[in-house]
Design brief:
49% helix; Glutaredoxin; Glutathione S-transferase Yfyf (Class Pi), Chain A, domain 2; globular; four-stranded mixed β-sheet; binds glutathione; alpha+beta; 2 domains
């Protein structure tokens, strides 16, 4: 049994997309991270910081997007979304999966909050270096880890889409736009987007957006 703890339009949306790419059965548990007063303390048993995503597979809880993506892609290898040990794409794949959470995400948050700092002040370094690196990677490669789509793309493309189009912090580099165009053609991506939209309609914090049409 696979349980997925999810909140629509959140960092968990990339995991929803990965589950759709894998084509596996899962039980979705909606977690209202925007609820007034915050999530109940009991949720810390699932995610210690009261965040999403989290998964529970055969009684084992897994948290943190990089770990969840690595785990799921290897637990369901038939989808071919995890380059195997020995595959030349394995190193770039793991690098990009972890880079999304440990460098890309905090760099964007720091920029969005107007934090000024030197690269060696924080392990994730500075925003401009991150943008230059991701731009180089997506100019050299078709996908996050090479020529084929992997689980790393569900994290990288989700991050690029959200921070460029919604948060409007990431610059609109041609390499980013081309990458998102390729991604948008994927049926599993489109399915996940539609499911997330339907779930967002049920979230009280989003009610006013849907009323306005
Ligand atoms: N390090 C976590 C971060 C997850 C995260 O930031 N989730 C946000 C969703 S946008 C969340 O649940 N926020 C709710 C809160 O902090 O109260 C991961 O990569 O899985």
């Amino acid at each position: 049994m696979l349980k997925f703890y999810h909140a629509p339009w959140s960092r968990a949306s990339g995991t929803l997309w990965l589950l759709e790419e894998l084509g596996v059965d899962y039980q979705l548990e909606l977690v209202d991270i925007r609820m007034e007063g915050g999530l109940p303390e009991t949720y810390r048993r699932i995610q210690p910081n009261k965040k999403v995503p989290a998964i529970e597979h055969d009684g084992v809880i897994i948290t943190e997007r990089a770990a969840i993506s690595t785990y799921l892609a290897e637990a369901f290898p038939q989808a071919g979304l995890a380059p195997a040990i020995g595959d030349k794409d394995r190193g770039p794949y793991l690098t990009m999966l972890v880079y999304c959470d440990s460098v890309f995400d905090p760099c964007v948050s720091a920029r969005a909050h107007g934090l000024t700092y030197a690269s060696n002040d924080y392990s994730f370094g500075v925003f401009d270096d991150m943008v230059a690196y991701v731009d180089r990677i997506l100019s050299e490669r078709i996908y996050a880890a090479g020529d084929r789509f992997t689980a790393a793309d569900t994290q990288l493309a989700s991050a690029v889409h959200f921070t460029m189009h919604i948060l409007k912090v990431l610059p609109e580099k041609p390499s980013f736009l081309r990458y998102l165009e390729r991604i948008a053609e994927r049926p599993a991506y489109q399915r996940a987007q539609a499911k997330d939209m339907d779930m967002a309609r049920t979230v009280p914090a989003f009610a006013s957006r849907f009323e306005k049409g």
